[in-house]
Amino acid sequence: MKDNFSSQSPAYAKFRPIYPQELYDFLKGKLAETERAWDCGTGNGQVAGELAKFFEEVQATDISKQQLENAVKQPNINYSLQPAEKTNFPDNYFDLITVAQAIHWFNFKDFYKEVNRVLKPNGIIAVIGYSLFKSNPETDEVILKFHKDIIGSYWDEERRYLDEKYKTIPFPFQEVETPHFKQEFQWTFNHLVGYLKTWSAVKHYEKANNQNPVDLIENDLKAAFGSGNKVVFPVLFRLGILS
Q1: Which residue among 4, 76, 154, 215 is least enclosed by CB atoms within 10 Å?
Q2: 22 Cβ partners below 8 Å, 6+ apart?
Q3: 58 near 47, Cβ under 8 Å?
């Protein structure tokens, strides 16, 4: 599994968007038990922190020590440095497994083998993410050009699963129909720039060219976005039951 985010863990925790409360409410309503959950590829622990509000125990794993050091702290969350595909958890242990904005980096075959081992019968797996945000038309034009033309060749191949809205990932479970969710924010221009600088392709471009590509669009982006504006993230959400 690639680790594209250790070098920017504090920024990741500060600028990455959260998921809507309605998603967690829907998820909670589908659970038979709320004893133990595993948040896999937890990153800064934002999902683990929400699960901790209604689970007795949350296990949260990542391959990035730096991400875990910047993660949300709660007494019922236990963080550990483990890959998604091979953990030290007991068999049939979890009522819920969540993967937020991370599954496209996993080895699907090995990860799903681990899911089948540690998830309880009739347990739930939730795959969550978000695709490219929208703002006003002028901002969208700048961002789309940036995403495609300036840093397009620097995206990892796995990024396509997000562009395809997770519809093309393998998902060998009894799938549950889910509502469409979105998350809206009122962001300052500085927050938008901070978020863009957490993109993996931005880091790849910067490493290759010794220049942050966000600087190349800053003036055009400021003119389009202003000092603050609305951003809307379409939420990706697939839910499956281990039958």
Answers
A1: 215
A2: 179, 181
A3: no
